[in-house]
Amino acid sequence: GESVGLHLPTLSVQEGDNSIINCAYSNSASDYFIWYKQESGKGPQFIIDIRSNMDKRQGQRVTVLLNKTVKHLSPQIAATQPGDSAVYFCAELDTGGGNKLTFGTGTQLKVEL
Amino acid sequence: KAGVTQTPRYLIKTRGQQVTLSCSPISGHRSVSWYQQTPGQGLQFLFEYFSETQRNKGNFPGRFSGRQFSNSRSEMNVSTLELGDSALYLCASIPVAGGSGEQFFGPGTRLTVL
Fold first, then answer.
1. Chain A: closest CA distance from residue B109 (Å)
2. Which residue of A42, A90, B50, B67 pairs with A104 in a disulfide if CB–CB is 3.0 to 4.6 A?
3. Does the beta-carbon distance from B101 to A102 stay under 8 Å?
4. Do A5 and B100 make contact, defined as CB atoms within 8 angstroms?
5. Closest CA to A90 of A29, A42, A22
6. pLDDT of chain B along its 114 residues, tens only?
7. Mutate to test the interface with B, among A90, A99, A103 (most CBs of B within 10 A)
């Protein structure tokens, strides 16, 4: 059928809960993954990155888990706050050099008070 | 330090016209990439420039072109506009020549084609 737009998955969480987003990738050669946040009316903002030689990377309230066996990325936010409401994108850095990013579809995170 | 500047922020054009969008990267950043964001296709890579040279190009028709100046400022041009070119055009400023996942995006230029 005709595509009228990407289906943007929505994740609704209660304030204070943890938010877990799921990203799948298909290229086994991909070795550098990045997580971006995009608030309404703004460009994407870098949150955290992880390379394929790592399984886990932590920042302030954010963690990203990488499972290379099933080609799955799991970015997480601890103690989610209203200011975390945004669209979140997983991205891969192109392996051919340069700085080209390939973005996933994105997940809309809604924080309920 | 100043962030990424994109001008204009909003633009309305009609089919068949052409448009030029501008991006001023963060001072000291020599790599600039452009992306198109639409509800239908998401975020798609257009092209990347480093030291005034185009290094990568996405899967867009030749109507989409760009350039980078010696001060690292970049412009992109879309000729013979089509309705489907309506989108948010984002510019990313990158501090290194390659391999950087941490990129700094501007607020975008919202282009509407009527």
1. 10
2. A90
3. no
4. no
5. A22
6. 679 999 999 999 999 999 999 999 999 999 999 999 999 899 999 999 999 999 999 999 999 999 999 999 999 999 999 999 999 999 999 998 788 899 999 999 999 999
7. A99
